[in-house]
Structures are given as structure tokens and as C-alpha cells.
Amino acid sequence: MDAFTIRDLRERTGELIRDAEAGKLSIVTKHGQPVFVAVPFDETLLKEGVGVALAVKLFDDEVISLGKAAKLAGMPQGEFIDHLGALKIPVVRYGKEELQQELAAFE
Asked: Which of 56, 5, 11, 42 is nearest to 26 (CA)?
């Protein structure tokens, strides 16, 4: 997720638009405080609304936890997990080392 200042909106508008077209969220700040979030206009936004689309995107970008994303989406955690599955977004993400450690724990 990229951050833009109010001044950046004038000077880097093209970059903000390219990021949105690439599916990236951006946050716009004024004096270091968040003012608004630029959310890509995509199928999830059209089907599910802003809250769910934002929750999915923030979770997928690993900005917020599963629990916080479900709360933001206004769904029970299990329902949100099912929703992520329908979108083919993995809920559990292990790095190579983490996966090896988990597998070793079962041996």
C-alpha cells in the first residue's frame, strides 16, 4: 500500500491512478494523518461493497489480520474465510522456513 500526501495528489496523480489500475490500495494523508483511502474499482467492490472490498484487499496485502478484516467486512470470521476461499485468496500463508518448522513439529 502506497501513501500519498495532499501535495502528491497534484504532482503524482498518474502514479496514484496506475496503482489503482494495478489493484493497489493507496492512503492519502494530510500533515501525516490519514484523510482517505483510494480503493481500486474492481469486481469485488461492485459485488460486495466498499467495506468488504477494503477488508479483502487489506488482508490480502497483509496490512491487517484475519480477525480485523472480518470485523471490517461486517462478517463472522468463518464467513469471511469462506468468502476469501471463493475469491481464491489463501488464508494461511507460510514462508518456506515456517512451513518446514511446522512440518518438523509433526514428526
From this structure: 5
Task: Kindly give the confidence (pLDDT) of every residue in the chain, 107 residues in length, as a single tens digit, with 9 standing for 90 and above.
Answer: 788 888 888 899 899 889 888 888 888 888 888 888 887 887 777 777 888 888 998 898 888 899 999 999 999 999 999 999 999 999 988 788 888 888 888 87
Can you give the length of the chain in residues? Answer: 107
Asked if residue 60 and residue 30 are part of one domain, the reply reads no
Look up the domain containing 82 and give its range. 42-107
Residue 70 and residue 26 in one domain: no
**How far, in Å, CA of 38 to CA of 28, rounded?**
8
